[in-house]
What does this fold into?
Amino acid sequence: MRTVYVNGAYLPETEATVSIFDRGFLMADGVYEVTSVLGGKLIDFGGHIVRLHRSLTELDMATPCTDAELLEIHRELVTRNEIVDGMIYLQVTRGNPGDRDFAFPSADTKPTLVLFTQSKPGMAASPMAKIGMKVISIEDQRWARRDIKTVQLLFPSMGKMMAKKAGCDDAWMVEDGKVTEGTSNNAYIVKGNRIITRELSNDILHGITRAAVLRFAREAQMEVEERAFSIAEAQEADEAFITSASTFVMPVVEIDGTAIGTGKPGTVAARLREIYLEESLKAAI
Ligand code: PDD
It folds into this structure.
């Protein structure tokens, strides 16, 4: 049985509880981070902590503990659960005010902090990286502050189910004719040697993997263009792929039934995946 963390205590997963009045439960008033673990080490922990602080600040939510304590909890959970490869999920909510009220509770309501591990042995060798993903496009119906990593994931969940129903792996969301991002990842196309991905704004999550992959791409003299693209442009691209903490770099081989390029994972995506895994492992803590 997993050991999880809740508000200062390490507990068996069946004994960890959160109040029914918790604002995370009642209002989706919470933020989260997912940090991957490879070889027992944390990938880009620093990046995830910076984004957590940004999410908390944007929502005027208190910080539950210090960064050093958060690192300690992550490491303790990896050790206690003997995680070699997998993920650590962290969630902070505005806490339990003892009742339901739309207004934020007073400052003495402590934030709720929950962390748990998900074991995925051999995660870096996912067969999907060799096969590639199939995606459908759907209208983006999320709220307008997608740069904040909140736990209100109902529409992304619905998108994932629409993809499943269509026999596909994920959905790319479209707004005003342009792709915003995948349901739980950032979206890219490749034309020649040029990598194209939507620019940062409130319309998308500022992916930690995105930042690293674009940095490595530029260092490898690849051209990067940060701008929005349409589904039609993506269908005519040489390659397509996604990035996230849990999938790293994953090729996309089909969009709305149209094969991308050769219909097989492309060389740019494969190279970026290789560089990302190599460099991230070197810097893992
Ligand atoms: N999802 N865009 C969205 C909407 C996301 O939910 C995510 C991450 C990303 C990629 O961000 P990062 O590279 O920092 O993981 C982009 C996580 C993995 C999840 O919800 O499980």
